[in-house]
Amino acid sequence: MINLFKPDMGEEEIQAVSEVIRSGWIGLGPKTAEFEREFSKYVGVKYTVGVNSCTAALDLSLKLLGIKNGDEVILPTMTFVSTAHAVAYNLAYPVFADVNISDRNIDLTDVERKITSRTKAIIPVHYGGRPADLDELRQVAGSIPIIEDAAHACGALYKGRHIGGSGNIACFSFHAVKNLAMGDGGALTTNDQQFIDRAKRLRWLGIDKGTWDRTDVDRSYWWEYAVDEIGLKCHLNDIMAAIGLVQLKKLDKMNERRREIKNIYMKEMKDIEQIVFPIDDDEDHISSWHIFSILCKRRDELSVFLQKKGITTGVHYKPIHLYKCYGNITHLPKAESIFPELLSLPMYPSLDDKEIYFVIELIKEFYKNK
Q1: How far apart are alpha carbons 77 and 84 in whole angstroms?
Q2: How far apart are CA 330 and CA 97, in angstroms?
Q3: What is the DSSP string of 212-243?
């Protein structure tokens, strides 16, 4: 079986986890703090707060901005449902924007049409790891806050800077199959000191000091803390952070391998008329290539054909506005037109050349015979 996604882990990660378990401190502790510092350095941002998922990071971001009942938040329809769910968690209204056919990122023309006096935030998603055009979005958004959904984009570059380092709030995923995989986990990055202080409280039930932080205070009052607002329990832990520290050191190399795989796919299948490739990297946009998503004719038949040969594929994503829970009341023509042809091919660093060429030959066989 050739998987669609697969984490790239080895003895270093096993050793890192073993050390944390032996230390006796496996919750929110020193490894989490170390990961937050190292991730901030990597991204080029002042602050990182580790949480248990990108969904939690999005939810916290909206809370930091004071998003409330009746507010509108614009986001692309072609993303994982958690992007919209986080808006709903805060009793706000997700306004779905269409996407570009070439890169599946948010359509800025549609964003501009949908901004109203109730628009309190915009969430661009760096689809598949391809950076959205943040500078152009800022011109469209004006003073409206931008929250980057960078779940796919760990290690991606926009105009020479890592995604997450532009000064916006950015939210990352460290889910089991992401480019930087911890098994689960996420992070919020920002340059705003007040945001990060409040985010650290909100991730730990509103408590103003984590248990590790309280080890540095006067021992006679170590149990004392304040709770000034109601928060969640969604912090990162030291087991996941230890894995993340190892993965962070390997991230650039793993992303480079993803680009090599992308290049093979695009070179070897360029003559298949039934396939349209995603837009390639350019000087301003260096994708992390978390997803390699093509547009192809007879998508469902091809997917079944490959599955029978032991190759897993996926579809990223069904447009969210088509789901029953969001009412299916919006028409977004570009997203709806490409959804029936979307297909994600296997993409992960340990995918070897022999496996890549096996996938390619089967796709050629499918279109040649049919």
Answers
A1: 9
A2: 9
A3: TGGGGS-GGGTT---B-S---B-B--HHHHHH
Point out the residues that are catalytic: 178
CATH number of 11-248: 3.40.640.10
Write the DSSP string, 123-145. Answer: --B-GGGPPP-HHHHHHHHTTS-
DSSP state of 67: -
Each residue of 331-357: pLDDT tens digit? 999 999 999 999 999 999 999 999 999
pTM comes to: 0.96
> For residue range 208-262, what is the model confidence (pLDDT) as tens digits?
876 656 555 555 556 778 999 999 999 999 999 999 999 999 999 999 999 999 9
Which overall architecture, per CATH, does domain 251-369 show? Alpha-Beta Complex (3.90)
324 CB neighbour count, 10 Å cutoff:
6
Q: In which residue are the tokens 């960078």 written?
A: 150
Count of beta carbons in the 10 Å neighbourhood of residue 254? 20
CA separation (Å) from 306 to 299, 301, 309? Answer: 11, 9, 5
d(CA 104, CA 39): 27
Pinpoint the residues of the chain covered by CATH 3.40.640.10: 11-248
Task: Name the nearest CA neighbour of 164 among 275, 44, 249, 79.
Answer: 44
> In which residue ranges of the chain is CATH 3.90.1150.10 found?
251-369
